[in-house]
Write a structure and sequence with these properties.
The complex is a heterodimer. By secondary structure, chain A is an all-alpha fold. Chain A has helices at residues 2-22, 26-46, 50-75, 86-118, 129-137, 142-163. The chains are: A mainly alpha, B mainly alpha.
Chain lengths: 167, 100
């Protein structure tokens, strides 16, 4: 059952990610990315991270993608113009990304083996995941948490300064 | 029971799709969305490894990555907006001021 869910949602994520980079219309790309983000949430649940699954749907698929769609509609764009020699560039890019993937898989295999040796695979997810995350967030990681609020404030001010109306 | 390796491979595949997108797309917003995809792939890797290590710290990292991604999206889209106001385009080929 778990395998089935993994392949279902993982497959959807990969298919829509590929569609995202192939669609010429940016709105279609954005909608494909929403599907990718939503399909990652069940995978987080399978991994025992229910809280992050909820955050993924609310923040990523909800807030961030709505922001993207707003900006796309503000700019009123047409479909992307094909630049010259794109197929050559695309071929180069795909071969580069493919080589990178191969390299990551080869190197990652060794790293995973090393990690396995360090700690045995623990199956049981922590019950009450949200509670556990909150406890760690407000004790061990309290300072980074507070710094995050400053970061968000800086982002708000920065976005207003950069995109605000000039007289 | 799905092995950690499967999740790591899925994360790597998604990340590389994002890399390919950054290379082949010329629309600044789509390039930006590919970067978000890459961040998400890293999140998946973090959560998978957090489970395999039996520790919840990785999930806290993902929480912070999501916050940074939200801030980055806000600032990045603001930059793209002001670029569009100045140049009437967001084709990344047009922005070559720093190239020589």
């Amino acid at each position: 059952m778990e395998q089935l869910l993994f392949w279902l949602w993982g497959g959807i994520a990969v298919i829509f990610a590929v569609m995202m980079i192939l669609k010429r219309n940016p709105v279609h790309s954005a909608l494909c990315l929403v599907v990718v983000f939503v399909s990652l949430a069940p995978l987080y649940v399978l991994l025992g991270a229910e809280f992050l699954a909820a955050v993924q749907v609310i923040v990523y698929a909800g807030a961030i993608m709505v922001l993207f769609l707003f900006v796309i509609m503000l700019l009123n764009l047409d479909a992307e113009v094909r630049s010259q020699g794109l197929s050559r560039v695309a071929f180069k890019a795909c071969s580069l990304a493919g080589t990178g993937l191969l390299l990551v898989l080869l190197l990652g295999g060794g790293a995973v083996k090393a990690l396995r040796a360090m700690a045995p695979e623990q199956v049981s997810g922590v019950p009450g995941n949200t509670q556990a995350v909150a406890e760690l967030l407000f004790t061990k990681y309290l300072l980074p948490f507070e710094v995050t609020s400053i970061l968000l404030l800086a982002a708000i001010v920065g976005a207003l300064v950069l995109a605000g109306k000039r007289d | 029971m799905v092995g950690t390796t499967q999740y790591l491979v899925l994360g790597a595949v998604l990340f590389c799709i994002g890399v390919a997108g950054v290379f082949i797309r010329r629309n600044a917003i789509v390039v930006f969305m590919c970067i978000e995809l890459m961040l998400s792939a890293v999140n998946l890797t973090f959560i998978a490894l957090s489970r395999s290590q039996g520790s919840i710290d990785g999930q806290i990292f993902v929480f912070f990555i999501m916050t940074v991604a939200a801030a980055e999206a806000a600032v990045g889209l603001a930059i793209i907006l002001s670029l569009y106001r100045r140049r009437q385009t967001i084709n990344v080929d047009e922005f070559d001021l720093l190239k020589w």
